[in-house]
Design a protein that fits this description.
By secondary structure, this protein is of the alpha+beta class. It folds into three domains: 2-60 and 266-353, Outer membrane lipoprotein wza fold like (Roll), CATH 3.10.560; 67-76 and 165-243, Outer membrane lipoprotein wza domain like (Outer membrane lipoprotein wza fold like, Roll), CATH 3.10.560.10; 86-161, wza like domain (wza like fold). It has ten helices and 16 strands. A hairpin with a 5-residue loop joins strand 12 and strand 13 (258-260). The protein starts with a helix and ends with a helix.
Length: 356
């Protein structure tokens, strides 16, 4: 009988399991290679979750734009005429002799398009430099050009269309496309509002800014958090909005393992365990609740955080420890589970034979 139990105990290692055992996780961490040693497998640090654990571990890292983007002046002030603009010129005349207007009319409206060289072509005037000038400066130049050709001419200009003074908003917004930039300037949140806004939780939305040769991405929740990331928009900026539903992986001895979505801004260990149906009473090891967190630095090892539910303060710690995206929650099995499986595998057929 002793030999049978010993053989069964040795055979436990070949039984199917949901993941590494509690002792396997501890053993791998305790036998991690020293710096400079050859690494046969991916090593990690095992860190118990305690009250002294730093907030830098438990809090979600914030995202933000670079100083170069934040300090940019943005677009505001008197707009300058640019290549591709379409201007509407209204030409007012007095007297009986009309230069542009038909008989009985005092005003004529003409569309002027700025060509690739920055010029417009006005009737009876010809080509006039337009790009780089304010509308008022261009209006004064047109007035001078028409003096002597008409009696007391008056010219007004208005901008009908301009691709140069626009920013593009694309992706998961209600109304994507080009948005004209107002003279007073506009900030990023106002630009998103002009595009109809985003129909998703702000913590699941990423906003990518493409400006010149730079691409920077910030979570919408961090833009809403303060004014620093609500940057000034510049002409030709491209803003790409992406909704990335947040899904956490939960494995091991839980009732419903798999991908778990929690509709709250911050997610704790207990939030994930609750969404996964809790621990399996017949399998779970209460001291083997692990959070696997990969390192964002190539020079640091991954970390496995351990929550021991047998300790009274674990009820507080499980709520305080915040899980990050890409973390994996794993609940190890108790030591006797594999042995129980082996007993069931061996003795259940024998019990069935006795009944025959």
């Amino acid at each position: 009988m002793v030999m049978l139990v010993a053989a069964m105990t040795a055979g436990c290692s070949i039984l199917p399991a949901t993941g590494p055992s509690y002792h396997a996780v501890i053993h791998e961490a305790e036998n991690a290679p020293k710096p400079g040693e050859k690494v046969p497998t991916l090593s990690y640090d095992l860190v118990p979750i305690t009250q002294k654990l730093s907030s830098g571990v438990t809090n979600i890292p914030r995202t933000g734009f670079s100083n170069q983007i934040v300090r940019a002046r943005g677009y505001y002030g008197a707009p300058l005429v640019a290549v591709g603009d379409t201007l509407q010129m209204t030409f007012w005349e007095t007297g009986d002799i009309r230069l542009l207007a038909d008989a009985g009319q005092r005003a004529t409206q003409i569309d002027l398009v700025v060509d690739a060289d920055g010029y417009i072509v006005a009737p009876f005037v010809g080509r006039i430099q337009a790009s780089g000038l304010t509308q008022e400066a261009l209006r004064q130049n047109l007035m001078q050009a028409y003096e002597g050709q008409s009696i007391n001419p008056e010219v007004t200009l208005s901008l009908r269309k301009s691709d140069a003074r626009t920013a593009s908003v694309l992706g998961d917004v209600r109304s994507d496309g080009r948005i004209p930039l107002p003279t007073r300037g506009i900030r990023l949140l106002d630009l998103l509002a002009a595009a109809g806004g985003v129909n998703a939780p702000d913590w699941e939305v990423k906003v990518q800014l493409r400006r010149g040769g730079r691409n920077e991405t910030v979570r919408l929740s961090d833009i809403l958090r303060g004014s620093r990331n609500n940057i000034r928009v510049e002409p030709q900026d491209v803003v790409y909005v992406t909704h990335e539903p947040r899904v956490f992986s939960v494995f091991g001895a839980v009732a419903k393992p798999g991908g778990i979505s929690v509709p709250t801004r911050e997610v704790s260990i207990f939030d994930l365990l609750s969404a996964a149906g809790g621990l399996k009473d017949s399998q779970a090891e209460p001291s083997a609740v692990f959070i696997y967190r990969d390192s964002r630095s190539a020079h640091r090892r991954p970390t496995v955080y351990q929550l021991d539910l047998r300790k009274p303060d674990s009820m507080f710690l499980g709520h305080r420890f915040k899980v990050r995206p890409n973390d994996v929650l794993y609940v190890g099995t108790a030591d006797g589970v594999s042995l129980n499986k082996m007993f069931e595998l061996v003795f259940k057929p024998l019990s069935a034979v006795r009944k025959l």
